[in-house]
Amino acid sequence: MTELIKNKSFFLLAGPCVVESEKICLDIAEHIKSVTDQLNIPYVFKASFEKANRTSLDSFTTIGREKSLKILQKVGRTFDVKTITDIHTAEQAGLAAEYVDMLQIPAFLFRQTELLIAAGKTGLPVNIKKGQFSGPKAMQHAAEKVLSTQNNNIMLTERGNSFGYSDLVVDFRNITKMKAFGYPVVMDVTHALQKPNAGAVTGGEPQMIETIAKAAIAVGADGLFIETHPNPSKALSDGANMLLLDRLEDLLKKLIQIKHAI
Length: 262
What we know:
Elements: E1 11-15, H1 22-39, E2 43-46, H2 65-79, E3 82-86, H3 90-97, E4 102-105, H4 113-121, E5 126-129, H5 137-147, E6 154-158, E7 161-162, E8 168-169, H6 173-179, E9 185-188, E10 194-195, E11 203-204, H7 209-218, E12 223-229, E13 243-244, H8 248-261
Parallel strand pairs: 1-2, 1-12, 2-3, 3-4, 4-5, 5-6, 6-9, 9-12, 12-13
Antiparallel strand pairs: 7-8, 10-11
Helix pairs in contact: 1-2, 1-8, 3-4, 4-5, 7-8
């Protein structure tokens, strides 16, 4: 994971929310890889091989577990990029580890001891998202569960805290407090702008992506997590809070200026 940390830059975890098709994943990865190579930003392709925590019973989950994982593997090999995907059960840790380079623990599941230990035992880097209902101190305990497997390749991710029934608020103090634990800290820009429990489909405020991303870099986030799509309105998951793919380059250039300034 050391290759992601550069003093003069930040790293980027980005891609569609879920594997929709081979073509969409390859197209998105190719575009982002081209932009990040030009800007010298370490890049990890992100997509979930399956979505388990959906709002509605009718929401899209997967095109098939093995099919999706093979697509993630192809993305990594085609563009020579690291790949990361969510896991939701301990059994999925070993399965996903055969195809991807990093594992991610969803925010709702960050307290699940068996899941964290299974992820740690794979030996892969583990990105743990902070629960919307928890403070930064809880993340130290989550990290220790992975660390108990002798795996210290850990990242922690801030993604906002629940505010009322259908809003999230980012407390940027959390980034500084979690960095004190000694792990790279990521800001999940797009999920922090969700409007959960707003109906059958989660809403969002994508117009605020630049605001959250700028603030995160300014306070010292090591990396950014951004879900992006060439046509968010057609995305099969979380389109309401995604960044339009064509706007990513301009955003990253602004963030580089902020990083250099501080």
